[in-house]
């Protein structure tokens, strides 16, 4: 499966858990993808307003996590790894390669739209 699909399914499973820590991990696992997409797609002022709606301790945790991994990152090894993994994904019919990770956001939006339509259809059938 694609990385986007794997992340989507992990999100779905985790956010339906009755264990709060598992639910949190489901939401937190896609936060970076959501922020990255939002920063790229919406005007800066809207993005800053969007980020301000996220609890400060969550933003702090995201920054700490990023700082931890940034400290361990080697630009040379990272560049080689990125190149190789991109080739691996493309060789396995994931045409977007490493960009596929952030495509989880599109899957989440599509799923929400599908849910809305499905719920409206069910409601309409119940009313008739």
Write down the secondary-structure element order.
Answer: HHHHHH
Dominant shape: globular
Helical content (DSSP H or I, runs of 4+): over 70%
- Radius of gyration from the alpha-carbon trace, in angstroms: 18 Å
Tell me about this structure.
80% of the residues lie in helices and 0% in strands. It has 128 residues and is an all-alpha fold. It has one domain (3-127). Helix 1 (3-15) packs across helix 2 (20-41) and helix 1 packs across helix 6 (104-127). The model has no long low-confidence stretch (mean pLDDT 87).
Q: Could you list some keywords that capture this structure?
A:
128 residues; mainly alpha; 0% strand
Compact description:
The chain is mainly alpha-helical and 128 residues long. It has helices at residues 3-15, 20-41, 44-52, 56-72, 75-91, 104-127.
Give a topology summary.
Elements: H1 3-15, H2 20-41, H3 44-52, H4 56-72, H5 75-91, H6 104-127
